[in-house]
Protein: tRNA(Ile)-lysidine synthase
Organism: Streptomyces minutiscleroticus
Amino acid sequence: MGPHPAVAAIRLAVRRVLHDVLNDHAPERLSPGGGPPGRATAPLVLVACSGGADSMALASALAFEAPKLGVRAGGVTVDHGLQPGSDLRAAEVVHRLTGLGLGPVESVAVSVGREGGPEAAARDARYAALDAVAERHGAAAVLLGHTRDDQAETVLLGLARGSGIRSLSGMAEVSGSGGRYRRPFLQLDRQTARKACMAQSLPVWDDPHNADPAYTRSRLRQEGLPALEKALGKGVVEALARTAQLSRDDADALDAWASRAGESVRDDSGLLECTKLFALPPAVRRRVLRRAAIEAGAPAGSLFARHIEEIDRLITGWRGQGGINLPGKVVAQRQGGKLVIRQG
C-alpha cells in the first residue's frame, strides 16, 4: 500500500524541484576526473522551516526524497524574537528537523526592525538570515513552504496596493540570487500540507500571528478570502493562483522589452532622452523609469506606483515642474530635454 495521497503529492512536488536543482548544478557535481559525482560534490539543499504545517511537510518530503537523488539535505529555522519563548520553539524545530535526518540544521536569531511595517520588516530580516546561512554552507537552494493559498493572498494584497501587473504575479517558483529560493508547493493547497503532516504524525506549531487581526495578511486569511468564496463560490484561490502565473508571464515579457528599450532611449553620455521615452508604450516606459530609479539608489521595496507616476509626468505632462523626491534620497528632474535621476 502506497503513502497517503497528500504525502505522495508533497513528495512528488519536492522530487521535481530537486531534479531541477540537480540539472542546474550538473557541471558542479562532476568529479575532477570527470567521473560520477560523489557525496563531496553533491549539492546541499536547505529547507526553511518555522515548525508550521507547510514547512514541516516540506521538510519531511525533502528528508525522504533527497537521499534517493544523491542530494544533501539540511534545514534552518529563523527565530524572529517577536513572541515569548520563540528561542525554545526554534530549538524544538531544530530537534524535529534533526530527527528527520536532515543535516546541517541550525537556528538563526534575527533582530526585526520597523521599516515598511512589521510584516515587511520580519520578511526582510528572515531572507537576510536565510541568505547568510545559504552562503555559509554553500547551499545550492533553499526550499520555502509557500502554498497556493499563500499565492492567492499575495495576489490580493498586490491588487489592494494597486502596484501593477508585477505585484499581481505573486511569488515565483524560483527567485533570489542565482535561483536560490524554490517554492515546490505553489500548486498545492494548505490543507494538503496539513494532511501530510497528520498522516505522518508530524507535530506542527500554529503561529498565533497567523490569526492575529493586527496583521494585514492574517485579516485577509481569516476574513477576506472566506468572504470572497462565500460571495463568488469555491475556486477563488485556484483562480487567483492562475492569475498570478498569467500576470508573471506578461510581466516577464514587458520587463524584457523594457530592458532592451532602456538602452535605446539614452544619449551618448547615458542620460535618458525625454522624447524617446515619450514614444514608448506607457507600460514599457514606466518599467524603464523604475529601473533607472533603482539604479540611482532608490530601494526597490520602497518604490511604489505613485512614485513612478510622478516621474512619468515629467515626460508626459511636463509643465516646468520641479524635481521629484524618491526613496533613498534620490531625485528625478527634467533638464534640457533629458531626465536626470540621481541621489540628491
User: Anything to note?
Assistant: Strands lie at 44-48, 72-79, 105-109, 141-143, 174-175, 181-182, 272-273, 324-326, 330-335, 338-343. The domain at 265-343 is CATH 3.30.465.60 (Uridine Diphospho-n-acetylenolpyruvylglucosamine Reductase; domain 3). Residues 33-40 have pLDDT under 50 and may be disordered. The two ends are 68 Å apart (CA to CA).
